Model the fold of this input.
Amino acid sequence: MIRLLLDEHVSPSLVGKLGDKGAFAVAAAHVGLSGEPDEQIWNYALENDFVVVTSNARDFIRLLNVEVHPGLIVLRESGLTRDEQWDRIRPVIEHVLDSSVVLTDSPIPRYTPTHSGQKLRARCMVPSESRRCIPRH
Done:
């Protein structure tokens, strides 16, 4: 199951919608991280195996200097309404949940997955030295 930590710029009301899709999600405010620096949110995510969902690309991409991490989903636009955030996050989560993968130790580059032939508006970031995802057959 995917575990998501929603940064303060992402609506906490999406926790329920994500749960309905089969993801375990918490908002930063729900785990005592309201107003805390990005480094503290990132460390909490690393220690508790959460993928961070944020619209704060610059600060969180800077924190990707670890060898392996659970993941980072960046909303490429800021100032989105809750519904607009959901419209960007939903296809990414559906893609992740629908993809049955096994992990290998081969490195893969950063990528932007596609959905129905169109680029998603949220980007999944993986560190360059992370394990490679291979679809199961």
Q: What stands out?
A: DSSP finds four helices and nine strands in the chain. Residues 3-135 form one domain. The chain has one domain: 3-135.
